[in-house]
Design a protein that fits this description.
It is built from ten helices and no strands. The chain is mostly helical and about 180 residues long. GO terms for molecular function: hydrolase activity.
């Protein structure tokens, strides 16, 4: 599947503007991590862009989130590694994250939310004004952006990445698409 097809598929299944932006942010972070780890950027991008494909359909059934989406992608012939990463990114299922891609998607998902929340409290509300320290300070405040699960973000250690480096890579990736994110 080409990126334009994946983008169209995401947009067909996700109508909420902010959720679309979230998928774009996760896609960017996944691309950055793929390059960092010398992996297939295209495949990692697809995992990021499509990871929440079923989110709106499963909003009232979080226990089904990621399962329905993974099944959908599997039926479309998506590579098993991508399907498995999408399936395992919802920690509610407690599925093993066997690949580096799955570990990256799991950790990147909530970090993008923390970074967006950090930008929104910054005086100019721009990603370009953020630095890693600012985001790390927000990370340390457990009352801030409560939906950004700190334990999941800290799972970056499963990729042998220190938190600071993970935040730095992710912030850099998101700054690269700041116009698309409106930040």
């Amino acid at each position: 599947m080409q990126r334009n097809e994946a983008l169209e598929l995401m947009e067909e299944n996700i109508k909420q503007k902010n959720l679309r932006k979230h998928c774009l942010a996760v896609e960017a972070v996944m691309a950055e991590l793929a390059n960092y780890f010398d992996k297939d950027e295209h495949k990692w991008r697809l995992a990021g862009l499509l990871h929440d494909i079923d989110y709106e359909d499963t909003a009232d059934q979080p226990e089904k989130h990621s399962q329905i989406g993974a099944d959908m992608l599997s039926k479309m012939g998506m590579e098993a590694k991508i399907v498995d990463a999408v399936r395992a990114h919802n920690g509610m299922h407690e599925l093993p994250r066997k690949t580096l891609m799955a570990k990256a998607l799991y950790a990147a998902d909530p970090l993008t939310g923390l970074i967006v929340a950090s930008a929104l409290i910054h005086p100019d509300k721009k990603l370009g004004s953020l630095d890693t320290e600012f985001v790390l300070n927000r990370y340390g405040d457990s009352s801030f952006a409560k939906g950004a699960d700190r334990d999941v973000i800290a799972s970056c250690k499963e990729m042998d990445l220190e938190l600071k480096e993970f935040v730095d890579l992710s912030l850099s990736a998101m700054k690269g698409i700041s116009d698309e994110l409106g930040l």
